Amino acid sequence: MRNEARLGAVCRAMLLALACVLSLAPAAAAQEKIKVVATFSILADLVRNVGGDRVDVISLVGPNGDAHVYTPTPADARLVGAARLVVVNGLGFEGWISRLVTVSNSKAAVMVASRNVKARRDGGGHGHGHDDDPHAWQSVPNVMTYVANIRDALTAADPAGKAVYEANAAAYRDKLAALDAEIRAAVAQIPPERRRVITSHDSFGYFADTYGVAFVAPRGVSTEAQASARDVARIITQVKQQNIPAVFLENITDQRMMQRIAEETGARIGGGLISDALTDGAGVAPTYVDLMRHNVKQLAAALAK
Fold first, then answer.
1. CA distance 269 to 261
2. Main-chain dihedrals φ then ψ at residue 170, nearest 5 degrees
3. Domain 190-303 is in which class?
């Protein structure tokens, strides 16, 4: 009887150990995340929303970074080489990405998030170096297309996660639809004749086309820390001629110059608009939804009578 009791105890212990192993197996499998590299912070946020816990996302150009002029590093090549999926904006935005993928010897699929978005023409002279305006994310409906493309690319890279990606994409699309409605409602409160602003960076064309706010970017504005007197005079003339009620100038950091523009034109100095990158967690726009909400609030406040 004593031997039988010992044998029973051993069996129970073995069964308990086996049950523990089996219970831990799914948790271990869940920790194997899909490595995804996004070229810049806005795309990385979209991928995180769709991928959820199944993805490990790295942004090559981080918060507050400028992807237009970014220079990849050897560390970036290693990241791309280890990725299963690389997500790029396309439309000529990341002129450096093709060479980076080549030198990294990456086997990752490269997905263009802007696929099926109707590109608007750049018009030339704005320093993008291509004919298409790449800033398609400034229109929320375009980002819905981005999200569908990301969902499909993640599913192709990780078929086991299909249901998760579809559910996450659907939930995020609902959030984007609410954001789109919020922006349209805010713009509707602005008198039509006041829906004009001037910016130093010509990156809001898609916002203008979608929501009906005209953005004018003065050509020749200096990319240095300060604009020249000639630059400021040109801006003043343009604001007067086009009766523009608000000025958002990212390149002019000297408050005296901004005050001069306001005094000589009667235009209101608006707050900063965010165009090509998210802020860090301490900033006003750590997510895409925050970015769009911040911009429309700035515009509504500056253009209100």
1. 9
2. -65, -45
3. alpha beta
